[in-house]
Design brief:
Radius of gyration: 18 Å
Largest sheet: 11 strands, mixed
Shape: globular
Helix content: 25-40%
Number of domains: 2
Number of strands: 13
Length: 292
């Protein structure tokens, strides 16, 4: 790989073209060799690939939309691949710093410190994953931004802004589309580590994320997916049976119900039903789009 790798950027758009263009603009850097591809995930017009846009005939979820974009950018000869939500924007130098860090062949993926758009506080400095207990949490969530530098090894990274290397993508494979939305990033990162790669946050790279803009904060679907895919992720990656499996599933259900009942964007009764429906579908092996 050359010192100036070709960077492919996938921005996923589902009915929010202005936001997708804003995200894409933040990733355009004339100093770098960058190809930005906006994937229209489930448009009403016939599917097409044209210039910097790829239109899919149906909504394939986060994992499916990103996989489609990655496939096109791989064919275009890209070396590094940035996944960028349509409600996220890169701050200056972010793309260059991520790509420079990913020149280390030991790393599968890197991410920036992701700041909340609303108040500038930290949304994520990576993700902590404890498969034994099923606990998955954002590192540094709610903390004040600071001037840290260097690389911070982590268990996983947020898919809101995530850069993958071509060798890792070749070895680990695509995102698991059964998740549809949520936890596919954690799944991929754990698989990458098991394939012998590392993961890191580039602490002087910054991005801002509105959060839940695509699915909508008032939608119970986000709580459904969180509960369903939380169960699926840990049981897929570290199966447990008998009382151990029951205990871990109970912890996951309790955590998701606690969060659902404390948040204020969805009514408590509706939120509780969404979590229980997600848990039920995980136990039944029903994945893909929500069935609420």
């Amino acid at each position: 790989m050359s010192q100036r790798p070709r960077i492919g950027v996938v921005v996923l758009d589902f009915g929010r073209p202005a936001d997708a263009e804003r995200a894409a603009l933040s990733a355009r850097d004339p100093r770098l060799d960058v190809r930005v591809l906006i994937v229209e995930n489930g448009g009403t017009a016939p599917p097409r690939a044209n210039g910097d846009r790829l239109r899919l005939p149906e909504n394939r979820g986060f994992a499916g939309g990103m996989n489609a974009g990655l496939e096109h950018l791989r064919a275009d000869g890209c070396d590094h691949f940035l996944l960028l939500n349509d409600d996220a924007v890169l701050e200056p130098e972010c793309l260059d710093r991520l790509s420079n860090a990913l020149l280390d062949p030991r790393l599968a993926a890197v991410g920036p410190v992701i700041l909340r758009e609303a108040d500038g506080r930290v949304e994520s400095r990576g993700v902590s994953v404890e498969l034994g207990s099923g606990q998955v949490r954002l590192e540094g969530h709610g903390a004040a931004a600071d001037d840290r530098a260097g690389l911070q090894p982590v268990d996983a990274l947020s898919g809101a802004v995530l850069m993958l290397s071509r060798p890792a993508l070749d070895r680990v494979g695509p995102f698991d589309e059964a998740y549809f939305f949520s936890f596919e990033d954690v799944d991929w990162c754990v698989r990458a580590q098991r394939a012998g790669f590392g993961l890191a946050v580039v602490q002087d790279a910054r991005a801002r994320h509105e959060g839940s803009a695509t699915i909508g904060r008032a939608s119970p679907d986000r709580l459904y997916y969180a509960a369903r895919n939380h169960v699926r992720c840990v049981e897929k990656l570290e199966p447990r049976y008998g009382i151990g499996g029951w205990w871990r599933r109970s912890l996951i259900l309790a955590r998701n119900l606690t969060f659902a009942l404390r948040q204020s964007d969805v009514g408590r009764a509706q939120a509780g039903r969404a979590v229980l429906a997600g848990y039920r579908d995980a136990r039944r092996g029903r994945y893909g789009p929500a069935r609420l």
